[in-house]
């Protein structure tokens, strides 16, 4: 008598849990070993540690069973690539993305224990990288083993690939080139990014997209040197004034961005998406406490969650010009500077935005103010439609693991996931189990062990579901 | 047979010139001696030099014949006061103002010779302080001697007082208090300021007023710390944006200042004054070269000279907030800062301006942006009406010395002259012989010797004229 699909899932889940329970202690020991390697990509004195971290992970993946594991060199820190073919014709290919480098951390920043000596207390593991991102990368190792154990397979139900980069905390400067170089080996039907979080311990969520990012610096030049504001004030253009007026002119009174063409091609929120956002147990007071801001502020007609997840922004990250020391100095400054960043949403093309902003800036400035505008490498937005079958697989696996309804979020930030989406032309799904209190980039970073093992479970259940779904 | 007034002046002028010619070499030797003292008030390592400069001047004034000379102590650098009563009942009292401290100077800034070792070349004396202001203070010593020699008097025709401060190049922090403390001794019917310049060598001019100055720093606070522009961008107020919008909102499209009440009480330019400005041989291209600006820019309806001499301004001297280092940083900054200065013209009251600007700033900021505004000590504007008899005396003496028509200018900057005007309730006249090429505050400062001796002549002729004029 064959089981119903539901009872098959229940059986698989039970088997997965049994396997995880048996391997729990060894898994935590291994993770702790990895966390002891201070793979801080931003600090050159840790270059050797980042390489050691890649080597450690490569060995761990080989031990997990991946038949093909390789260190991929970049001009910076190395990435780790691993592949485990399903062996079944027609099986979908999935690429898991994460990173093995971590943020800087020092005991004197306020850590209660050595950031590179993991401590388990009250069901949490404290260490730099515990949540961001070693813990979330590592749950895939036990995940795939549990998947094999529960299904009796010797290879995963999907062609499973992992790409774990080593420069994410340094802005992934070589990531896109790496993906382009190895595009054929990395080719996948779906990308699973395990470098995000969920709403809260009680509210598991799947992120469906990230905003993109375009960044520029505008240098403004007025007089050939700082000049006396008494002798010349009121009769020549002031570059600090010009900088301020540029920033002020970026938005209208409703906080819409005024740059012509800025909203071209944008994917407007559907009513269904807005309803899903509104369903989340959002506490604005609590959110403001996290933001440490005294008030919300933004584009008219949108809620706070809509503003940070689904609306583009024009933000000034830095401004400077003239005399900034103590006291006064009655000058018209020779120059000023503005750093702007634009968060972009699905449908917006960074190159188009850069061109439109560049044109607009040139039109704003009076005679006598020269300028230079420099754009940094942009990140495209990414968004997976709610109805995408691979997204549905992730939701089912996660619901099963957590035993509750899974909701949807987006991410206001930007990340290299978009490069995978672009270069590999594959949808990006986010499987992250971190919670806001985990302290990414902060002292006393931790991962909740319960959630870590829910991540293992989700990963263990996901491959069978994806293989059964046309992705 | 008595001489006609004109021929009396001719005779006096000839006598003055003869006397000056006889004492020219000794005068330059003495001035060079004073210029060798590096009385840099802004540099604490020169405190002793500033005191030595005051002592040197006091001795020189005693030798000139001033019966009363005293060093006036302040919490900072000392000033020198000297008085020479006329002895004639009803003689007017005149106070000459100047300063004995100088700007910093170092050979490596681009000086062709040691800034504190005067060099005479091609009719110019090069040294820090040659024009600003030791040369212009010192011409009064030979001036009063020539006045006595030419008139056969043993005391000046006016009650002559000198107040030569030692902190002008450091913003005169104790000057007003000094004037208030010694107001009775300093009391005068007119103040002669010898710390300005004239239009050019060919166009002698008298300055009739200076702009006032109010200065503030505005600190703006947003989130409690720099926050991630991905996680929060678009949904909280950004203090750098608020700073920029404040600056941008200061002016309307015609570059009028928008702060309500800013123009209250202002003395509008008369047609006669505008015509006098327009008569000056103003070369805008040359002026832009001096300003090192690519274009003029300012309040609609006013010429460049009107803008800098007779119109108030709102200028940003410094702005800063967020990340200003190399590359980008995707933050919403915790704070930002703006330094504003307002040049004021006759009729504007600094306290009224401070109140109006303070109120206005408070009204501009959104919820979630806290601010603090700090005002520095203000300087009032000063303006002597064209028809004032003492001003006419200065014009006559200068015309006679230079042998040509004297025109009128104003000064766009602000200075302690206004404190004398206020505290002593006396009109301020400007007798300055420096020219724009003299390089105040710059390397290779110099004074034109021809003009220096025209200053001596003017001072020598002025006291008789003032005594004969009801001031």
From TrEMBL, chains A, B:
It comes from the Bacteria. Residues 209-367 form the Peptidase M20 dimerisation domain. It holds the Pfam family Peptidase_M20. Its EC number is 3.5.1.18. GO terms for biological process: proteolysis. The keyword Hydrolase applies. PANTHER family: BETA-ALA-HIS DIPEPTIDASE, SUCCINYL-DIAMINOPIMELATE DESUCCINYLASE. This is Succinyl-diaminopimelate desuccinylase.
């Amino acid at each position: 008598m064959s089981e119903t699909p539901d009872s098959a899932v229940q059986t698989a889940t039970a088997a997965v849990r049994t396997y995880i329970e048996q391997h729990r202690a060894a898994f935590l020991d291994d993770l702790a070993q990895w966390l002891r390697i201070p793979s801080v990509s931003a600090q050159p004195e840790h270059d050797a540690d980042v390489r050691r971290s890649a080597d450690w992970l490569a060995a761990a993946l080989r031990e997990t069973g991946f038949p093909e594991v390789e260190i991929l060199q970049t001009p910076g820190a190395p990435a780790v690539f691993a592949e485990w073919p399903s062996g079944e014709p027609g099986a979908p290919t999935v690429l898991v993305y994460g990173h093995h480098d971590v943020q800087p951390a020092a005991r004197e920043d306020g850590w209660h224990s050595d950031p590179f000596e993991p401590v388990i207390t009250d069901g949490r593991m404290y260490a730099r990288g515990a949540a961001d991102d070693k813990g979330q990368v590592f749950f895939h190792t036990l995940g795939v083993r549990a998947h094999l154990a529960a299904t009796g397979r010797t290879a995963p139900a999907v062609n499973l690939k992992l790409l774990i980069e080593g420069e994410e905390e340094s802005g992934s400067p070589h990531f896109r080139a790496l993906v382009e170089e190895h595009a054929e080996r990395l080719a996948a039907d779906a990308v699973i990014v395990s470098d995000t979080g969920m709403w809260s311990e009680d509210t598991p969520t799947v992120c469906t997209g990230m905003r993109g990012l375009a960044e520029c610096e505008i240098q403004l030049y007025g007089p050939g040197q700082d000049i006396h504001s008494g002798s010349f004030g009121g009769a020549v253009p002031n570059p600090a004034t010009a900088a301020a007026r540029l920033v002020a002119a970026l938005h209208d009174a409703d906080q819409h961005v005024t740059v012509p063409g800025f909203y071209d091609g944008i994917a407007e929120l559907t009513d269904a998406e807005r309803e899903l956002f509104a369903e989340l147990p959002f506490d604005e007071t609590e959110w403001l406490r996290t933001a440490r801001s005294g008030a919300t502020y933004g584009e008219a007609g949108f809620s706070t969650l809509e503003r940070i997840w689904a609306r583009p922004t024009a933000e000034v990250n830095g401004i400077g010009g003239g005399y900034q020391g103590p006291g006064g100095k009655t000058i018209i400054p020779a120059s000023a500077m503005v750093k702007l960043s634009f968060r972009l949403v699905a449908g917006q093309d960074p190159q188009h935005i850069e061109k439109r902003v560049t044109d607009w800036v040139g039109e704003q400035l009076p005679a006598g103010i020269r300028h230079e505008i420099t754009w940094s490498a942009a990140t495209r937005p990414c968004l997976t439609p709610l109805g995408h079958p691979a997204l549905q697989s992730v939701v089912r696996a996660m619901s099963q693991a957590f035993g509750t309804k899974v909701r949807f979020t987006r991410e206001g930030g930007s990340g290299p996931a978009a490069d995978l989406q672009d270069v590999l032309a594959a949808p990006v799904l986010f499987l992250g189990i971190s919670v806001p209190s985990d302290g990414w980039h902060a002292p006393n970073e931790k991962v909740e062990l319960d959630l870590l093992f829910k991540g293992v479970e989700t990963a263990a259940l996901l491959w069978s579901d994806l293989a059964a779904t046309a992705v």
